[in-house]
Amino acid sequence: MAKRKTVKGEDYGDFYENLAALAEEKGIDSEILAEKIKYAIEKSLKSNLHFDDEEEDYVQVDIDIVNKRFDVSIMKEVIEVVDTLYEPEKEIVLEEARKIDPRLEVGDRVRCPIDTKEFKRIAAKNAKDLIRQGFSNAERQHLSEIWGEYENEAVSATVTRIEPKTGHATVEINRNEVMLPRSEQIPGEVLEVGQVVKVYISGVSKEYKEGDKNQYLKVSRTDKWLIKRLFELECPEIYDGTVEIKAVSRAPGSRSKVAVISNDPNVDAVGACIGPQKSRINAVTKEIKGEKVDVVLYSDVPEEFIKQALKPADAVKVVVTNPNPDKRACKVVVPDNQLSLAIGNKGQNAWLAAKLTGYKIDIKSESTVTPEDFIVAPLEVQPEEPEPEEPKPEETAAENMSETAE
């Protein structure tokens, strides 16, 4: 087969150097990026030349990074002469075909190289979008492989870009750019390019499939578990397991509640989280832009836990009025002068307490409470599933006889 003639002035040095630089910047193997380019060019040419999907080998792209070779060729059908139905992209006349291989006959197929200038005219525009999509897929795959083990962890990220219209930010994590949507930023927070912030990796694709739009690396600054990870960084007792965070509820940008318990009777769980002169809790609130954090004591006794969750209000009495797991509710009595404190601004304190404990909380002042408020709903007994009956001896014998006959 005749060798492809190199067009004068054609130089792919910059192409391979740029490809290598991009691969190093993203931490992705350059061979993977080359495969994405190859796939994009093949698909674009097939679309422009109207090849069917089953005609897979009709378009061939060869990208050799080591030897810096870039060849594009198309399988063409040999025809005798040019006629009115002649398609130069798919057909080649016998005379020209025999310059490539003298043994060719009419009806044979021969692989013909495409001039890069001709390729640019035909398919470069479509290939550009496909290449960009391929690079994006490769980057998502790389992120999934790197950060899969860090799911549900907090990491440092550098803000690299902010979209003026939408407010979406792009952050860099380990030399990879990840989208931080406006909805996942703390309300009222104004990020700046170059700023380093903590983000919580709340979702990572475990398996990667080419073209799967569900692949993602989701980062957030509003996730409630970011609070837990920040306390782990600031509080050694939480990190080593002496103090345990049992529950978190959060209204991002406004207030959070954290329930803690100590596994060592000599360690004060709440005091350990607050730290000397509030140093630890201040460090956490600084990272989340001044969001208030209430640290309360966890209890296995629902009534006591609900009392703690409603702090800074002091509950006089708590009665669980519905103990059923899917309908848990309670009545709380507070002093008249603390009703607004227990409910909180726009009901926020009560809402956070309900989220923290898992109980629907109805708050009453001492002057308005009635005996009917403490009526307890009966505990619903879930019907037990009947055990499967053992087959009767005669039925078993009949089944065995049937199997033997078969």
Notes on the structure:
The chain has 406 residues and is an alpha+beta fold. The protein has four domains: 130 residues, N Utilization Substance Protein A, Chain:P, domain 4; 69 residues, OB fold (Dihydrolipoamide Acetyltransferase, E2P); 75 residues, 2-Layer Sandwich (GMP Synthetase, Chain A, domain 3); 79 residues, K homology (KH) domain (GMP Synthetase, Chain A, domain 3, 2-Layer Sandwich). The protein is built from twelve helices and 15 strands. The strands form four sheets. It has a five-stranded antiparallel beta sheet with strand order 7-6-5-8-9. Strands 1, 2, 3 and 4 form a four-stranded mixed beta sheet that branches. A three-stranded mixed beta sheet has the order 10-11-12, sandwiched between helices. Helix 5 crosses helix 8 and helix 9 runs antiparallel to helix 11. The protein is elongated, with a radius of gyration of 34 Å. The N terminus and C terminus are likely disordered.
Shape: elongated
Instruction: Please give the count of helices.
Output: 12
Strand numbers in spatial order across the main sheet: 7-6-5-8-9
Based on CA atoms alone, the radius of gyration comes out at: 34 Å
Mean pLDDT: 80
Helix-strand pattern, N to C?
A: HHEEEHEHEEEEEHHEEHHEHEEHHEH
Give the C-level CATH assignment of the largest domain. Answer: Alpha Beta
Number of strands: 15
Structural class: alpha+beta
Number of domains: 4
How far from one another are the termini? 65 Å
Low-confidence stretches: 1-13, 208-213, 400-406
Strand content: 15-25%
At CATH level 2, the architecture of the largest domain is 2-Layer Sandwich
CATH topology of the largest domain: N Utilization Substance Protein A, Chain:P, domain 4
